[in-house]
Every structure is written in C-alpha cells, then in structure tokens.
Amino acid sequence: KTWMIQIAVLANHQSGRDTHIRQIVVHSPTETSSIFIDPKFSSIELASHSSCR
After folding, report:
1. Cα 45 from Cα 21, distance rounded (Å)
2. What integer pLDDT is reported at residue 4 of this predicted model?
3. DOC domain location, by residue (predicted)?
4. pLDDT in tens, 16-44
C-alpha cells in the first residue's frame, strides 16, 4: 500500500525558473478497492489525520 508519493524534479529548464507539474498518472495492479477500507494506524497522531471533513 502507498499513502504518499514524493516526486523530485532533478533537472530544471530555463535557468532554474519554477517548475509546474500539471498531470501525473499512477498505474498499479488492482487487488481490492482500498478507497473504501479504513486505514488502521498505530499512532494517534496519524489516525487523527486519516479522514477528511
């Protein structure tokens, strides 16, 4: 399971101006629909940030 993906821009175009990433697509094999499964966190700090209001 993946909870966060970090993307690093290693080279920049036009003498180091700001880089804007417009669209990213992540492909993975589907086993179960993890969107509807509640994550089980071991710490209270992570569990408190696990849902959107």
Report:
1. 30
2. 82
3. 1-53
4. 677 788 888 888 776 665 566 666 777 88
- Contacts of residue 30, Cβ cutoff 8 Å, sequence gap at least 6: none
- In angstroms, the Cα distances linking 19 to 10, 12, 14, 28, 34 are 11, 7, 10, 26, 32
Residue with the two structure tokens 């700090």 = 45
Whether 39 contacts 50, CB under 8 Å: yes
Q: What are phi and psi of 47, to 5 degrees?
A: -65, -30
C-alpha distances (whole Å) from 37 to each of 20, 40, 42, 50, 51 are 32, 9, 16, 12, 12
Q: What is the pLDDT of residue 25?
A: 85
Q: How many distinct helices (H) and strands (E) make up the chain?
A: 1, 0
